[in-house]
Amino acid sequence: MVDTTVVGVCGSLRDASVSRIALRRALDAAADRGAETDLVDLRNLDLPLYDPDHDEPGDAAELTRRVRAADAVVLATPMYHGSYSSPLKTALDYCGFDEFEGKTVGLLAVAGGSFPITALEHLRSVLRALDAWVLPYQAAVPNASSRVSNGEFTDEKLEDRVAQLGDRVVQYANIEPDPHSFESEQNVGGD
Ligand SMILES: Cc1cc2nc3c(=O)[nH]c(=O)nc-3n(C[C@H](O)[C@H](O)[C@H](O)COP(=O)(O)O)c2cc1C
Known about the structure:
Blueprint: E1 5-10, H1 18-32, E2 36-41, H2 60-68, E3 72-78, H3 86-94, H4 97-100, E4 104-110, H5 117-129, E5 133-134, E6 139-141, E7 148-149, E8 152-153, H6 156-171, H7 182-185
Parallel strand pairs: 1-2, 1-3, 3-4, 4-5, 4-6
Antiparallel strand pairs: 7-8
Helix pairs in contact: 1-6
Bound molecules: flavin mononucleotide.
């Protein structure tokens, strides 16, 4: 019986996105550990830039419903200007404590260059503000264009690292974190 649901959110809208390829690999590994998986492809959702005066336009309710249903979430982002992408930021702004508090989150970043770490660090800060439980283990795909071909990884070690992320979010999906993060307690506008 499946008792763990893992939702992946892909922060790249690009058709040939390496983030999406890597996210699929992580979700396949989660499925191998017995989880039900759901890949939220932001290309298929109507999510205008977040406006607090209109906080449920388009497909926002669908996004939050799918993230709320997760026991664990994998966030995959392309590295844009040293950080994570604006589509992912918009998606996260539609979410809040209802979607993320106490939830296990795994992070995955993909970069054209050789240093995707800042995107991971920035996402980690955001998820702490939402009181998520972010895995210490994280996965990065540097020099992305040379790491995949025809939608598949060409680098076995890197593929293993990405797959490990999917495995570990299932392993820790039902953890009960305590106490709240300091950042989340100061995050008064965050619900
Ligand atoms: C607007 C923009 C900014 C980018 N900034 C960086 C960057 O700061 N560092 C980097 O290594 N790659 C950067 N890249 C390259 C992307 O990280 C790379 O193309 C990656 O594969 C995109 O992810 P995707 O394949 O999932 O779309 C940038 C690409 C775009 C479109």
